[in-house]
Amino acid sequence: MKKKLKIGISACVMGEPVRFDRGHKKSGFCMEQLAEFAEFKPVCPEMAIGLPVPRPTIRQIVRDNIITVSRPDGSGDVTQALKDFGAKVAQNYQDLAGFVFCAKSPSCGMERVKVYHHHGKGSESTGVGIFAEQVMKANPLLPCEENGRLNDPIIRENFTTRIFTYQKWLDLKAEGLTRHKLIQFHSAHKYLVMSHHVESYRELGRLLGRADIDLEEQSERYISGLMEALKYKASRRSHTNTLQHLQGYFKRQLDENKRRELTQEIAAYREGLSPLLVPLTLIKHYLIEFPNEYLLQQAYLNPHPKELRLRYGY
After folding, report:
1. How far, in Å, CA of 57 to CA of 78, rounded?
2. Nearby residues of 302 by Cβ (< 8 Å), 6 or more positions away
3. φ, ψ for residue 239, nearest 5 deg
4. Element (H, E) at 236
5. CA dist list (Å): 150 to 54, 85, 111, 153, 278
6. Rounded to 5°, angle at Cα 195 from 194 and 198
7. What does DSSP assign to residue 104?
8. Phi and psi, residue 124, nearest 5°
9. Could you tell me what percentage of the chain is helix, strand and coil, using 3-state DSSP and rounding each to the nearest 5?
10. Which tens digits make up the pLDDT trace of 87-121?
């Protein structure tokens, strides 16, 4: 990469001691692997609105179907302050390629945040952090994830694929979008989309085939559809389908033994006997031996830096 991605991140996930007890929730993946390729923009919304460290705990409390954020006894309501700060960050950080939030936080949790009843009896994990909600609402295309979920290898790979793809889109917009560049961008991401969601692959192709809508509307609908498609987690079945499509490009170049070898490796991957890296490495080897310009530009083959080793374990 020529430049690092700009990633928003809850400051505690970056390792800063900003939690109510002076603790943190440092993410090993973010700080020890992704940091080589990302410039993090740390944010602690609770400190930003003036709360100290250490500080009394705050929680989401529901009364008459209205959720507020305050101390457990209802004092120190910071709901509006968190909303206002979230809206400000969302407006000022339009160049972000992604955001990593702190799980279960009343300000930063993306989902499953505890919401307590005002009478103090019981809670449900149905809330969304007030700050995180504002950021996600204002930037629906922005890839967002929580620190805890990034421990799952499939979720981690999915999020990383989305942030690198979105950064390429931001770069494309910055240099000036044309219909030709839009078609080129889609052409390079066709098999990546196929590996996540086949129906989106078809829908995006139909969208770009239309001549009755202007470029601005077409590009907005395209990137919305693309980022939505990439939210679907690629499975062994969808990867196998994509690998078999790539295999078809070599049917005339490979001899019988090489065709059999590739077929066997794809089948082994489909059955869970080997990681995705194995058939992909073989395809890349054949691309060196039998170059194909169309395949060489496919983001599916290298959706993120190999140094992150995200395709080794599944």
Report:
1. 12
2. none
3. -65, -40
4. helix 236-247
5. 27, 25, 14, 7, 23
6. 40
7. T
8. -130, 140
9. 50, 10, 35
10. 999 999 999 999 999 999 999 999 999 999 998 88
Positive or negative: CA dihedral 155, 161, 164, 170:
negative
206: left (phi over 0), alpha (psi -120 to 50) or beta: alpha
How far apart CA 85 and CA 88 sit, in angstroms, is 5
2 has a pLDDT exceeding 70: no
On average, the pLDDT of the chain sits at: 96
* pLDDT tens sequence across 153-196: 999 999 999 999 999 999 999 999 999 999 999 999 999 999 99
Alpha-carbon span 282 to 154, nearest angstrom? 22
Backbone angles phi, psi at 71, to 5 degrees: -65, 160
Supply 153's token pair. 């290898």
Q: What is the residue whose two structure tokens read 């059999």?
A: 260
Q: What are phi and psi of 138, to 5 degrees?
A: -80, -20
What is each CA distance from 178 to 95, 293, 295, in whole angstroms? 20, 22, 23
Q: What is the DSSP letter of 269?
A: H
> Position of tokens 């410039």?
39
144: which 2 tokens? 């967002």
C-alpha 75/C-alpha 73 separation (Å) is: 6
User: What is the amino acid identity at position 208?
Assistant: L
d(C-alpha 300, C-alpha 287), whole Å: 14
Longest dimension (CA), the chain: 75
Dihedral sign, Cα of residue 246, residue 34, residue 49, residue 25 = positive
What is residue 312's predicted lDDT score, i.e. its pLDDT? 73
Spatial contact of 301 and 280, defined as CB atoms under 8 Å apart: yes
